[in-house]
Amino acid sequence: MSSTLADEIRTRLGDLSPAERKVARVLLAGYPAAVFETVATIADRASVSAPTVLRCASRLGFKGFPDLQAALRAELDARTASPITLYAHSGPSQSGTPEESGTPEEGQASNPELRAALSLVQQAVSQTFDEIAPREFDDAVQLLSDPRRRVHVAGGRFTHLLAQYLGLHLTQFRDQVQVLPDRDVERTSFLTQLARRDVTVLFDYRRYEPDKTVIAELARERGGKVIVFTDPWLSPAAAHADVVLTTQVTSGSPYDSLTPALALVESLVGAVLERIGDKGHERMKLSESVARRTGLI
After folding, report:
1. Mean pLDDT in residue range 179-188
2. Region 219-246: what's the mean pLDDT?
């Protein structure tokens, strides 16, 4: 499973001295660009000595600061990986032969490729839910359940499907939910209306789309809140987010898996509906009534 340098730094914060933690916080605050600063610059920003920066890198598990920077370069290469480069790197998925995979237990898929795919999906979903900070998830629920806030949702090439899925569910039990329109004039009007009480939800996975970062910037400039769904390498839009929900993308093919993200979206929908309570239930009943009356269902 994927783990970023930022994840490793956060995990080891408790092992650092107070001065080294200052260095780590400088690196995290300006991540990833800050890691490529000189040792002297980082020391100045953290108000510590240059040797403290070097000790911090060593305490984080690197031989020296250049090794830490090299790790980030490798991570950034992974961030921009496309299905073509992933396929060229790993080749076609190989799940092994039936003899290698053993005899499936009752209720399991008998095809070894299906069993391998199931294992990857289960691991990715499990790790995603294990790594979501409860505070982040609760903040997202609170923002999306606030009736005073409008909700705007936008996705990318493939993730627009997740954006629409989330938006369609939210419209069932709360008002003022809109998915980013496709046409330029409507999209411009949509972005022009972003305001202080709005919540903008963005889905941005590698290869990241520049417009998602711009939308996040616009939303924050207007005083609104931003929720970003992204992968472990973090969309640039995450730098402008109030809530970042990271999901694993590991799959058995050159294409990133969005199954963990879908599972998290469904969990978020359920939690928001529960938080809204009776008003959400009444809205659902009204929607059902209108749909039946107009012949939509």
Report:
1. 92
2. 89
* pTM reported for the whole predicted model: 0.69
- Domain boundaries of the chain, sorted by first residue: 5-79, 130-293
Domain 130-293: assigned CATH number: 3.40.50.10490
Instruction: Measure the CA dihedral 26/18/64/73, to 10°.
Output: -30
Range list of H helices, the chain: 5-11, 18-29, 39-46, 50-59, 65-79, 83-90, 98-101, 112-131, 134-145, 160-173, 184-192, 210-221, 259-276, 278-293
Euclidean distance between CA atoms 87 and 256, whole angstroms: 11
Would strands 177-179 and 243-246 be described as parallel, antiparallel, or unpaired?
Answer: unpaired
Burial 100-126 (b: 16+ CB within 10 A, else e): eeeeeeeeeeeebeebbbeebbeebbe
* pLDDT above 70 (res 296): yes
Selected residue with higher pLDDT from 90 and 74: 74
CATH 3.10.180.10 is the classification of domain 5-79 = no
pLDDT digits (tens, 9 = 90+) for 162-171: 999 999 999 9
For residue 161, give the 3-state DSSP assignment: helix
**Which residues 6+ apart lie within 8 Å of 294 measured at CB?**
none
Q: Which pLDDT belongs to residue 108?
A: 58
User: Phi then psi for 106, rounded to 5 degrees?
Assistant: -60, 135
What does residue 240 show for φ and ψ, rounded to 5 degrees?
Answer: -110, 10
What span, in angstroms and rounded, lies between the C-alpha atoms of 239 and 237? 5
Report which of residues 254 and 139 the model is more confident about.
139
Report whether pLDDT(26) > 80.
yes
What backbone phi and psi angles, to 5 degrees, belong to 62? -110, 150
Strands 198-203 and 243-246: unpaired
Euclidean distance between CA atoms 38 and 22, whole angstroms: 16
Alpha carbon of residue 295 to chain centroid: 38
Q: How far apart are CA 182 and CA 161, in angstroms?
A: 13
The whole-angstrom separation of Cα 283 and Cα 145 is 13
